[in-house]
Structure formats: structure tokens, C-alpha cells
User: Fold these one by one.
Assistant:
Number 1:
Amino acid sequence: MNAVNLLEFDLDGLTAFCEQLGEKRFRATQLFHWIHQKGASDFTLMSDLAKSLRDKLAGTATISALTVASEQASSDGTIKWLFDVGGGNAVETVFIPEDDRGTLCVSSQAGCAVGCRFCSTGHQGFSRNLSTGEIVAQLWFAEHHLRQRLRLAAGERAITNVVMMGMGEPLQNYAALVPSLRVMLDDHGYGLSRRRVTVSTSGVLPMIDRLRDDCPVALAVSLHAPNDTLRDDLVPLNRKYRIDELLAACQRYLDKAPRDFITFEYCMLDGVNDTPEHALQLVELVRDSIACKLNLIPFNPFPESGLKRSPRDRVTAFARILQDAGIVTTIRKTRGDDIDAACGQLAGEVQDRTRARERLSARAPIRIHRPGAAGGAGPKKQETKA
Ligand code: SAH
Ligand code: SF4
């Protein structure tokens, strides 16, 4: 019989497992503490567990970390790990330290099936979902590794925030995602507040509703376009779930959300979605329909995308239009770009089972709007493919 990896369980799951071993429920809580609060992986060191239980565990269970394939540290303190998840796949996890917090950007899938045009994970295609244990292992490793590396005092936490913004679409891996969120939130686990755990989604609408009911945490929605025509092209999932339906789901989410707004992410692509007209459309779209904050992300380029980052002055002009309309808008700082750890640069390694590269390169080239060209709004020009 294969040993069970205890990182696969939230506290309820671990309790059921302990009961199968004939153990009382509180033993599961003790064990959960050892694993997640102390970072233990060796049952023999769990001194307050009976020897008989430790022996049983040694025969049936493991606490298995992921294999670190590489680590890169940025000059700004950002650290990126590449974890080997077997079968030729590797996923990335990024730690982003700030003065008042430590954020871990966690992957949910090897690759991604959504295939957004501006995302390097999307260009890689999809290989497989990560299990709960593989999602949790990213946090487990990072927290306990960083406590030592940063020489934190007893009781101090390295990671105060988790964002599901690494590789993959978390809401297309819902069954594994929810128990992993519960481990993050559990007071016996990492004890993170719901406001400090963010699920970012390209808009898997039915799962937004389910998340609201099952495990509401902060929600970020990758919008990237103010109309369906443009969003269809940038985020192909939009052809299934339209913007108005997506906003309605966001509105329903707010009923139970830990924050009273939804964050919309908007990746600024030169000449594609960054003109004043787009900003005004965005204002029209969200101003009276939903409590939200806009987070503008400077595009992090990668060669196959054929896209460019919007110039800084265009991003600030775009932000000003939103702000003048009363919409709270921030421009995301780019962190770790010297180690390709910024948003959308996480590529890991993926055995593509979806042939996304071929699909994406076969798609019609995106229509680029060149601001400042003759004729006001400017002539439309076809972008050449990379
Ligand atoms: N699949 C989820 C979460 C992972 S992507 C989602 O799409 O929301 C996390 C964020 O990075 C998303 O907002 C995504 O749109 C953004 N992103 C992807 N590629 C990017 C790039 N090349 N530059 C900047 N942001 C990017
Ligand atoms: Fe997938 Fe998100 Fe990248 Fe789109 S942006 S391809 S949903 S990881």
C-alpha cells in the first residue's frame, strides 16, 4: 500500500484519516500542528504523540515535500522556486517580501488550459491539476524554509498572505483548491485570515458561486478588457462566460466575501487595451454595477506573445481616468522581473497535452490600436505575429 501524504488533508480529512487508524479526533489536531505550525516531517520527533500512534503513522503515512529543482533570488528580495512535480512537469512559487507582509504566490496547475494570449503559462498549455498536497506543499516548504533563512523569532510568520496567482487557473482545479485553502485558513494550520488569501480567476463563473458558498476568500478577477470582443481574444474563456454574467457572479460573491470589493486585474498591453477609450468603457462597465478596485498590471513580456508593455505614461493616464471617475485604482509594482518571477512570467516546465502553442500561434493576429497615429483614434493595424 502506498503511504498517504498527510499534506493532502485539511483538518477534517486528517481527522477522518486518524479515525480510520482508531485514533481520537484531537490526535488529528496535534498532528496538524506538528505538520503545519512546526514544519515537522518526521513522526519520531512528534514528542506528544503516543509511540503507538507514531509507529502506526510511520507505517501508513508520509509528510512529503516537493522536490526543489531550482531557486532564484532577486535583488529586491523576491525568491522564486521551481518545484519538480514529476512526469516532466515543474511549477513555480514566488515569495514577495514587503515591509508589512510576506506574500506567497502559489501555483494550482502544471500549465493552464485557458490559454490567455498574454500569459506565458497559457502559451505552455495544460498538463495536469496539482493535488491538494502539491498546493499545500508550496506553502509548507516556503513558510518553514523562510523562518530559518530569515532567522525569524519563535511565533513569527514568514508568510502573511497567499495569492493563487502562480501557474494555472485555480477554479479549474476546484476539488483540490478548496481543501488547500482550508489548510491556509485553519487556526491549527497557517491561521491566515480570509482577507489575506486571494483566489485569482480568469472567470470560471460557476465556480465563483461555489467558492462563495464553500470557502469565501478574497477574490481577484482577471478582466483585462472592457468589452466582450476584446476579452474574447485575450481571455478565451470569455467566449463561454460573458462579462455581464461575470460581473453578476462577482456581485453575488460579495454577499459572503471577506472584503467588500472585488479586485479586477487588468494587464496593460501596448495598443491593445490601454487607450483612454478603453478606460472610459471600463468606467462605464464597473462604476455603477459593482464595488471594485482596479489593479493595473504592467505586462511582463515574453517572446512568443508578440505583445508589448504599455508605456508608463499610458498606464498612468489610464489610471487617472479611472481614479477621476471614483474607482480605486493601483498600478502593480513589478517584483522579481530580473528572475522572471513577475506575473505571467511563470513558465515552469509543462508536458503540454493541449497543444496550446500551436493553437495560440494559429489564431488570428490581435488587432492593435496605435494611439497617437493620424486620425484621432488612429488607424487599426495588424500586429505581426512573433
Ligand atoms: N489563472 C488565474 C491566476 C493566475 S494568473 C488568473 O488568470 O487570474 C495571475 C495574474 O497574472 C492574472 O491576473 C493574469 O492575468 C496575470 N498575468 C498573466 N500573464 C501576465 C503577463 N505576461 N504580464 C502581466 N500579468 C500577467
Ligand atoms: Fe491561465 Fe491565468 Fe495564464 Fe490565463 S492568465 S492562461 S487563466 S494562468
Note: The pocket of iron/sulfur cluster (ligand 2) is lined by residues 112, 114-116, 119, 121-122, 168-169, 202, 222 (CB under 6 Å).
Number 2:
Amino acid sequence: MAFTVAIDGPAAAGKGTIARAVAAHFGFAYLDTGLLYRAVGAKVTEGADPLEAAQALRAEDLNAEGLRTQAVAEAASRVAVNPQVRAALVDFQRAFAARAGGAVLDGRDIGTVICPEAQAKLFVTASPEVRAERRYLELVEGGHEATREAVLDDVKARDARDSERATAPLRPADDAVVIDTSEMSIKEAVAAAIGAVEARGAKA
Ligand code: CDP
């Protein structure tokens, strides 16, 4: 049976960690939809046309190296305001969501636009300062150069662009469970998410 978990929220709120843990707990497949926009953004920085890059995207492109950098995140959020780019990526995401055996998708518009019929919807958030600190540590651990100030500026700029765009802006679905992870450990956040998904009828 298809069971879809939609997880949305701003940059570095902990969506990926929570989504992976939820998928592992219930035995569902996981798709980080940010990677689709990152892969398109990366191709655009190499000179590709955004729409052509989105239309030509293949599953293998999501494994490309270098998609986690701040520069690619910035490029991703720029291509993500383009309605044609977003439209070109819809089918891939819906097909993934409908797979038998269950799926978890994380992004910005999964519960509102991509899978409005998802059985469980979570909106994972945290204060900009907490998110910037987490992203800073993640980047430094990954061997990337970063400063706290630059990461906080980037997080705020992307939040503004993602929330204010006309097409599929970042916002919680009306029926989403909001989880603010500002003061939660990873364990607590994962437990809250699993509890919310169980409450919607998923079984491990
Ligand atoms: O990991 P982080 O939250 O920093 O970023 P991401 O989820 O990889 O997404 C990178 C950018 O892609 C975001 O800032 C959004 O502009 C865009 N995005 C989107 O518009 N819709 C999605 N479903 C996922 C990402």
C-alpha cells in the first residue's frame, strides 16, 4: 500500500535527519527533493539553461558530487522560483511518492503542492540562529569553508526567497503537524515525528 509522508520546512531545520529516521523506522523509501533543485542549480552554474536542465534531469544526477555546498544551495533557491522548472520536476516526485511500500519526501512544497493527499504531513522548523549554527557545523565537518555570519545570512536570504516566491511558497499545509526543533535533541525530534506519523495510521 502507498503511504506518503510529506516533510516540509526551511533550510537546515533538521528535515533530512528526521525524514531519514522516519523512513528507516517504517521501512519507507526516502527522497530529498532539495537535491532535484540543487542538481538543476549546479547545472545552471555550469552554464545550462534552467528549464532544459530540469527537463533533462535523471535520477543519477542526484548523486553528483558537490551538491551540498552553499553556492549550489543558493543556485538551487534561485532556480526554484521558476514555475516552469518546478513544473518539470513534479512527475518525478509524484511517482516516487506513489511507490508501493511507502515513501517519505522532504522539501518546501510537498504537503501543499506535490502531495496534498499525503497521509501524514510534518512541518519541521527552528529559529534562524539555531538552523544557521547547525548548518555551519555540518559544513565545517564536511570540510567546506564557512563562517557563522555568512551561513546565517544565507539561511535568512533563502528563507525569504522560499517564503515570498509566487509559485509554491514555503508554508505549512493546513493539516501539517508543526515540529519546532529549536530546543529539541535529534532523538526528541525524531520521536515527535514518528509519533505524528503513527497517529496518521502508519505501522512499523
Ligand atoms: O538542505 P537545505 O534545507 O538547506 O536545502 P534543500 O532542501 O536542499 O533545498 C535547496 C533549495 O531548493 C531551497 O532553498 C529551495 O529554494 C529549493 N527547494 C524547493 O523550492 N522545493 C523543494 N521541494 C525543495 C527545495
Note: The radius of gyration is 16 Å.
Number 3:
Amino acid sequence: MTAAPPSAAYLYERVRRVIPPIEWSAFSDDIDAILALKRERNAVILAHNYQTPEIFHCVADIVGDSLALARKAMEVDADVIVLAGVHFMAETAKLLNPQKTVLIPDLGAGCSLADSITAEDIRLLRQRYPGVPIVTYVNTSAEVKAESDICCTSGNAKAVVESLGVARVIMLPDEYLAQNIAAQTDVEIIAWQGHCEVHERFTPADIRQLREDHPGVSVLAHPECPPEVVAEADFSGSTAAMSDYVGREKPARVVLMTECSMSDNVAIAHPEVDFIRPCNLCPHMKRITLANIRAALEQNRHLVTIDPQVADRARRAVERMLAI
Ligand code: 13P
Ligand code: SF4
């Protein structure tokens, strides 16, 4: 007989600084049910740093940035993976675990970057720039990855570009990430014009206002922000790199120019740091809720599937990245 799962009441201690008791009362049933379902189905939940605190801190088994989720997806010892994040993340987990059941709680959890480019666009780029390697951000569909030479994330983009040993690469689809990496390397980068709908809204004027209103604040910006925003920030890095920066530097006051839940999740681990919280919501990430994670486990939905011919080629591009 298996022991009963811990009650959600005990988990409230983890999140009480960011979730008022009235909100918690709406979560605790689903949390208890999810903990039981995970045991019954031998399931694990992978959650991105942008998931809400009740998901991130109370039901997730593995949390992190896109790179960490991809790496850890390879090591998962479970029958079922529920991806609390967006569709491209679930596809990456499926690519790396073709024999496992991978579920995404809401099929509508997309990404403006993934929607900005198709496999046909990549084939046309190959004709236009023969011989130039194509580095594809993981925020893309499996079909796009399948046409690419290698993938990257915001956490390893510079290393991936430089690993190829060439003078020129195509890096897509995020124009701003490409420009931000181009500023750090001698490799010439040809970009695409995709943008993250969350990060493109931050402006240098926002940062100047923040510095005026909160003297001494450390400003951290995700590299999906426009280059002029990154230029005014004190640090730029992936969601994991921003979280590590707060842990390492322990700024008295900090602002994370990124998705809103990120500050809540990092603030829980660093009560001594004052988080200033202007942020932008990712509507796709916010489609994932405790209720639909529970339904995913109860009803085995929504299955993530990838055409095997696409999957083999897409997997090569992801594995080539993970080997770096
Ligand atoms: P990270 O890889 O930095 O977690 O970013 C993923 C993402 O979607 C950012 O918008
Ligand atoms: Fe895509 Fe931007 Fe949302 Fe990340 S924050 S999932 S890049 S739309």
C-alpha cells in the first residue's frame, strides 16, 4: 500500500508570501488530487519558470528554464510527463522521450515566436544563403527544428553559435535574441523578424523610470527584450540566469524585465530581496492551471504527438545542442 500524499495545507507554507489565504482555498483540492494522480500514474510535472507559484512550488517535480527542462526531460524516470509550459516545450520533452506519454494541459498554449516561422520559411532561407548553418531557438515547432542544423536556448545561444566554427550563421526566429547575441560575438548573425509578444513591450524609458522611482534598483532583462532595453539593464540572461543572479548577488532591490510569475517564484526563495514588479503576462503560459493539470492526468489529455519523420530530424537538432 502506498502512503497518502502530503496534504496541500503543508505546502501553503511555501507560497504564503505570494498567495493570500482566500486564493489558496480555491487551489488546495486540485493540489491534493494532482499529488495523488502523480503517484497513481507514475507521472512527473515539468514546469517552466513562468508558471504560477501554486504550480511551480506545489505540484511541479522539475522546474527551470527551457534549457534545464530539455536537459532534465532526458533523465525523467516516469511513464507520464505533464509539461506545465507552452507547446514547444512539450514537443521538446516528447522528442527526447518518444516512448513516454507527454501531456500538455491546454493545446492552445502557444508562443508568438513559434508562430512567426514555418518549415517552408527555413527551406527558402537555405536557398537564399546556401551553406550558412541555421541555429534555431527552441521556441519553434518540431517541423521548424527538423529543418535546422542545431537548436539553442537563451541560456546557451552564444556557445551554440560559436561552437559551429563559422564566420556567419542564421539565427531564428527571435530578432532581438539574435541581435543581443551578435553584440557578444564576432560571428556574423543573420536574423529573422520574430518577436516575443511579452518581452518586446519593455522599453528603455521603462527602465529609466524604474531607476528614478526606485534608486539603486538592479535591472535584469531577458535577452528576448529589444537590444536597447538590454543595453540599459545591469544584467541579461535566461530565466535561470536571472534567478541565479539574484541568489548570487543578493541585490537589495531588483526588477526582472520578463514574465510576471518569474518574480513571484524567485521572491519566495529570497525573502531578503525587495522585488519591484512591473512585468508583462504571457497569455500562453497562463493557460496552464491547476484545474487543467488535474484534468490532464485524469483524462490523459492532451497527448503530444510528432510525426516520426519530423521527430527524427528535429531530435537531431536538439541533441546536437544538448551535446555542447
Ligand atoms: P528561458 O529559456 O530563458 O526560460 O525562456 C523561455 C521563454 O519562453 C522566455 O520567454
Ligand atoms: Fe513565447 Fe514570449 Fe510567452 Fe516565452 S514569454 S512563451 S517567448 S510568447
Note: Residues 86, 111-113, 139, 196-198, 224, 259, 282, 284-285 surround iron/sulfur cluster (ligand 2) (CB under 6 Å).
Number 4:
Amino acid sequence: MKRLAIVGLQWGDEGKGKMTDVLAKEADLVIRYQGGDNAGHTVKFESYTYDLHILPSGVIHPHVISILGPGMVINLETFFKEKKPFPKAVIKVSNRAHLILPFHKTLDAQKEITQNIGTTKKGIGPSYSDKINRQGIRVASLLNKERFIKEAEILADLHGISFDARAYYDSYENDILELIPNIIDVSKYIDEAVKLNKTIMFEGAQGVMLDISHGTYPYVTSSAPSVSGIPSQVGMAPWLLEGALGIVKAYSTRVGEGPFPTEIHTELAHQIREVAHEYGVTTGRPRRIGYLDLVSLKHAVRVSGITHLAITLLDVMNEMAEIKVCKAYELDGLIIDEVPAHIDDLSRVNPVYDTLNSFKEDISTIDSYDNLPEAAKTYLSYIAKQLEANIASISVGPKREQTIHLLNMWEVSRD
Ligand code: GDP
Ligand code: IMO
Ligand code: MG
């Protein structure tokens, strides 16, 4: 396989950053295909920890070319700050990506007062809204200072906000001038890389349950993290994407508002949150904790055509006295196996659980599948069977080396 996507199958924070970093060892290009600095991808190795919000998680590997794709919304402040620790990294930015300007953050915060989605307040929704409303500002606008200033002031005016676009540009002018040679047509760049047989990873942010079309609308983000969104967002033919690795946390988490059928409301949630440091990397908010939800996972696997999985944070499951897995929902007395499309219905479902044996052992240093406790193996096979997918990797800790590989995704063929 030469072109592989990494996609979160829950509500984000599944460990996409870690798995992208692990697989990027063998990649030439890593492309973030959607979202912006609402993402928080933590990568750990040796004594280093990197919290990446906008850069692709391949950036730590010196040989990798990092690309911010056309489907992204980019906050220059975050971008310039985040790239500083990587002075030698080759980082390219799409000329068609849209900008998040300071007033987008203001608009996001204002809308939250009444809408209360629990957004990251990074201006994601307002920037994507401007794009869809055909009034947004692309990275290409930065190539001409006066043009940018004119466009940004018109846009701020449309929103009834005063904005000093000249002062804004001036404050980043040196960084912008340095960036200009790396502002590219990503579609063309990918086309050339494909012809040269380069290995390309597409790194998702958020997760399928936060997808604007397939997630728990309206409690979603404003982009399309699911696999089918990748080709259109990067400018590549769909059939060139050879596979996708679905990242699944061994339990569930969600940050922000919105229905979460398997949410745990007991002390156990607190315990897991502390052990696994389940706090948002971008906002510091405590993540809500829940049992694994196979109904939403089957939905995510289907809409994204997932055949291979990486199961992450399996080590944390030893906190659970019993492993509960939601296999169906009950709604108004009926048992259903699909995610209701209307938020009112989804808010009313009751999870129907299967209970599996738990394991108490510390598995964070185990490096082979055979050495995992029997109960952990049973849990893994149960998940694989239910989701009709193969497990390629198992993550038993945040570091690169705490990964058990059952399959090398780069060696998996498309059929
Ligand atoms: P992402 O947004 O999908 O990249 O995930 P985040 O990085 O936001 O959240 C995952 C968190 O779990 C991070 O703090 C990781 O360092 C950590 N992590 C990743 N894999 C594992 C694992 O297998 N076990 C444990 N204990 N932590 C993990
Ligand atoms: P990564 O890439 C978890 C959530 C927010 C909110 C909703 C909309 O680290 O998995 P937005 O600011 O995007 O308009 O917020 O989406 N959200 C995330 N939750 N992980 C993320 O990213 C998220 N990015 C956005 O909490 O509920
Ligand atoms: Mg995250």
C-alpha cells in the first residue's frame, strides 16, 4: 500500500497522532486533510512530548514532508508558533486552504453563548461557514499583501467586526515571506508524488462521529474527517487512496456537548480520566468517558469503509472491574442497531450491553500479542469480529515503542 489514511472512528482523541507518528517512519509525505487547530495530537517518544494542533504528526521524522491540505482551515498564529521547534522540517501549505482570522474566533465564542456545542472556540465553524458562503479567504490571498488586506477588511465588515488587516499582516509579514515558497497546489504535488511512487499518509483530525455529515449533528465539527471526504479535500482521485486504518480507543471519550449513550457517570470515569490523562490537549477540558459503543463504531466503519483497525489505550482497560460493550440501543422499547439521525432520538437511546471478563494486569510493557492476558485477547477478537475488520496494531501506552504490530499496513495490499 502506498497511500494510507489514518482516521478516528469515535469522537476524536483516539490516538491518531501516535499512530500517524508510528507509521510515518515509512512514509514520504504526511498530509492533514481537514480541520484546523481544534485538533490536539500528542506524540511521545523517548523523553519527548509533542502536542500538535495544526502540523501533521509526521513532522517529527526528519525525512517526512508535511503538508497542510486544501480542506484545512489555518490559523497563522498557531501555525507559525508550532513550526518553530522544527526549523529543518519541510512543511508545505495548500494555496486553497482557508484562513482562520482573529474575528472567526470571536464569532465562534459569540455563537457558543446561544448554541452551546462545546466547540474549541478556535474559529473553525465560522471559517468553514465563510468558505461555504463563498466569502472566505484562501492562503493564496497571502501572496499579495494589498489584496489580502482588502479581502480581510471586506469580510470583517460583512460580520460587522472591525479588523485591522494591515496590522495583522504586518505582524506576520516575515513569517509569511518565509512561507511563500512553500505555498503549493497540493493536488498537483500529490499527483507528482504518486507518479514517483512515494508513500503518502493522510492524517485525519477529529473522528467520524464528529463528521459534519455522518456525526452526531449538530454536535459535530464543521469538516469531514471520514475517509470518503479525503479525495475531494486533497484534490485526488478516490481510487488512488489504497486503504484506511481506523483508530479506535478501547473505550470511548467525548469532549464538548452532545449525546454520548455509553457515558459513565460513576467514579470510574474520574479514575480513567486521571490514569489516561483524559483532558483535551487543545482546551484542557476534562474528556467525558464511556464504554465502547459498537453501534456508533459500526456506523463509522461503514461510512468510512474501514477494513483495518488500530486499538489504542488498551492498557487503560485494566481500570475496569468488568468490560462492558454496547452492542445495540433501545429506543422507545425497540432494539435498534443504527445511530438515529435526529439528535433528540439519539439523546434518548439506552445502551444494551454485553459484559466481558476484565484483566487486571499492567500490559504497558507487553510487546507481543501472544503475551497479552487471555481476557484482553478475547476483548480484541470480540471487537474485530463485531466490526468485521482486522486488527493491525494494538497500542498499550503513549510511546512509539508501546505498540504491538500484527500487520504492517504498508505491506497490506488493497484487495
Ligand atoms: P488524537 O487526537 O487522536 O491524536 O489523540 P490525542 O493525542 O488527543 O489523545 C490520545 C492520548 O492518549 C494522548 O495523550 C496520547 O499520548 C495517549 N495515548 C495514545 N495511545 C495510548 C495508549 O495506547 N495508552 C495510553 N495510556 N495512552 C495513549
Ligand atoms: P482531535 O483531532 C476531540 C469537538 C469539540 C466540539 C466539536 C466542535 O484531537 O481528535 P469545533 O471547535 O471543531 O467547532 O468543535 O468538536 N472537537 C474535538 N473533540 N478531539 C478533537 O480533535 C476535536 N476537535 C473538535 O470539543 O464538541
Ligand atoms: Mg486529540
Note: The mean pLDDT is 97.
